[in-house]
Amino acid sequence: MKNLLKTLVPVALAVAALCAGARDFPGSKTVTLVVPFTAGGPTDRVARDLAEAMRKPLGGAVVVVDNAAGAGGSIGANKVAKAPADGYTLLLHHIGMATMPTLVRNIPFKVESDFEYVGLVNDVPMTVIAKPALPANNYRELVSWVNANKGKINLGNAGVGSASHLCGMLFQQALGVEMTAVPYKGTAPAMTDLMGGQIDLMCDQTTNTTGQIEAKKVKAYAVTSPKRLTTPALKDLPTMQEVGAKDFSVSIFHGLYAPKGTPAPVLKKLNDALKVALKDPEFIKKQEGTGAVVVTDQRMEPAGHKAFVAAEIAKWSPVIKAAGVYVD
Description:
By secondary structure, the chain is an alpha/beta fold. Helix 2 (about 40-55) packs across helix 9 (about 265-275). The protein contains eleven helices and eleven strands.
């Protein structure tokens, strides 16, 4: 009996301390939001907007962004997967959570079982864009130009496994035309070369392209959302489904994750704070200004978020396998 008590008392004390910590969360401690990409990119911008929007509903807590880039987003994700499960280290990741299981070789964690799903943040559609000198002025003319220039088209992307790379693969499938993929180290250099005419086409997030489209530095032909967008610079662009690519729908979603085992009361506080942030008029304004759509459906709940990512994994796995692209 004494040995049993010696075992149970420390456990009971640990549980009591954990419950007390969850009740007081986050208190005066800083919450770190890990972004698995470099500063200044689209996911980083979403993270910084979200950090500010969640500060008040978390009782005025300091929420800082930590950029941990590399290996297709798996370095930052692994950092969170291995962090203490106390709610103070979170992950903001995009569609990479659905592509990493297939794309990244020897991934050091399991997306579906090594994280707690807090909720989805937004959907970010893609845009099909081209260098300003491309002669096509609408999507129909673009298809004609592509068919007339088979074997000579350069399709830029932000790197192997990036959102623009994935979208580009689907775009080629939709047109039935193979193009020369030109990977860059990020969207910025790819966009610079597209505007300068060194590459012909690119398919990238509205968060990266809206400003360039508005300034007429690139030509835009279509969006990959299920319906047209309301952003002024994009509202006249047809969807890919409108122009005949019925199964072409790509959303570069962003979601919030915590380490597996984070206490349920802490997760509830995080989810409650997230839902308040998603209704913040300033946050919504910032997202809509770049063409992103703030989540309002069941995916803002942990269960809905997890089910959505599982469906996206099933969607992208065959596409990546068929393309034979991997990140070491």
